[in-house]
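In this section we walk through a basic example: taking a raw amino acid sequence and producing a predicted 3D structure, encoded as discrete structure tokens. The instruction is simple. Fold the sequence below.
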Amino acid sequence: MKNFISIAALAFATLSIPSLAMAQDAPSKGAAPTVSDADAFVVRAEKDLFDFSVEAGRVAWINSTYLTDDTDSVAARYGEIGTEKAVGYALEAARYQAIPGLSYDTKRKLDILRGGIVLPAPTTPGAAAELATISTKLQSAYGKGRGTLRGKEINGSDIEAEMGTNRNPEELKEMWVSWHDNVGAPMGADYSRMVEIANKGAAELGYADVGAMWRSGYDMPADDFAKLTDKLWLEVKPLYDELHTYVRTQLNKKYGDAVQSKTGPIRADLLGNMWAQEWGNIYDLVAPAGAGDIGYDIGELLVAKGYKQTELTDFSPNRGKAEKDMVKIGEGFFSSLGFAPLPKTFWDRAQFIKPADREVVCHASAWDIDNVDDLRIKMCIKVNSTDFVTIHHELGHNYYQRAYNKQPYFYLNGANDGFHEAIGDAIALSITPNYLVQIGLLDPAKVPGADKDNGLLLRQAMDKVAFLPFGLLIDKWRWGVFNGSITPANYNKGWTDLRLQYQGIVPPVERPADRFDAGAKYHIPGNTPYTRYFLARILQFQFYKAACDIAKWKGPLHRCSFYGNKDVGTRLNAMLEMGASKPWPDALQAFTGKRDMDGTAMIAYFKPLMTWLKAQNKGKSCGW
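The resulting token sequence is shown next.
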């Protein structure tokens, strides 16, 4: 998952700590708050948080590009300040949100403030400190987690890599079980207590529970949003079911009935990923004969055109030139749609390669430091296919950030939390052979023929389609935990049941009730809402198809590139410039002409694969 840095979001926090810092904004004691009180409060909060976000953004950038104990300390301090501001304003916003007669903007901004905290602490003395302690403990436990391989200890990053390449079912089982036992199991009691405290905090902000608070950010009642996610899932489930059946058959051929049966669920540890969330690592086990060779590699095409990767010891005037030129190709994509060039400061301030003299965070991210046009990306670019695609993705965030820069501070964000990632991913989908020909990287004679399509689409589906049920069930489980329908005694059963229901997978061994397998996935102890990733997978195809329809593309959808089409750029910008100022259906309609998220675009994209999968699965039992 790539990231964009919303500097607006830096003023809000994962964990809230009650503060009296905003007391001066409140009406006098005993006085009923008025519409004018609410309006004045929003104006003050918006200005304060805008100013703070710029300074906090600079601190965060320095910390990410100059990793030292000192910059860590300063960044942590600004995080504390942001947390205090966030909860103070959230608690105050809750006092105004039910006042009759509020204007649209005041009400919307109050809701953004009130729901902008992931884990709200109640004002009960000692509760915030306890919640902070538990949250830190859970994240630390995950970071220090270890599994075993052949009886020897192995850390998290190494075990994740090994799960992707190891084909020994006993060793896969050992890694899966040891990671879930060692990392997840000890967290259960702390997690239960954390839920209890945070739910009290959510109640003080006017929500039924934390899950309802998370679902409140989608411009509809919380329960209606849950129903929407179910609808989206049912639209794409037939494609997932066919993929599941085909992959299960290939795993049975590889491992035999004793390891993976021909029918029923798939054993979770065989799918090339600790959490079975993406299956691309086992593509070699399921690929049709000859399908993997598409005739070109983007990295090799770049090298052939003279893009030479910068060596760490290269201090010549051309240091970083090839990598910067790759970014210029990405800029050219957006320029071809009619977007203005990136500002000069982008080229002066962005991090394109890993510096030779210091440690930095290399994980790709996109930034807008001043909430206007101080746009930057932070990468350690390599001259390869993966980073070529990532550049286009990250620039999608930057162009989105610049498009909405005239909005008020509280609207400096995507229409919902799935939109930002979906924009970057939709742009990345347009990196087709046709696009590579248009920009002069690929010889037209080497465009892969239709006989390669099934393999290409299968490889994409192993990640993009396989992810969908996992992207949904993470928060389905948490919503149940927060509302009490999944009790602490049933945490593990609830998790395993949802994995079976949605993904059609089972653990490699029976799991005891006192385990806490959910904690073996970072986003659970890290308290990161996850539905945004499910929405982004759906929306990216909806955006992509809309762009191809506007461009009047006539061929197979997966071959479309809308490079060079100004009409696409105009319609896209109409959506992007709205930011979070309007309900997301309004933003969606501005670009796609439709007000509903739906999965039909993904089905259309993978239509040739669906036909092929059905033929491969003929006579087999589909489902589990």
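Looking at the output, two observations stand out. Residues 237 and 612 are 16 Å apart (CA to CA). The radius of gyration is 25 Å. In the next section we compare this with other chains.
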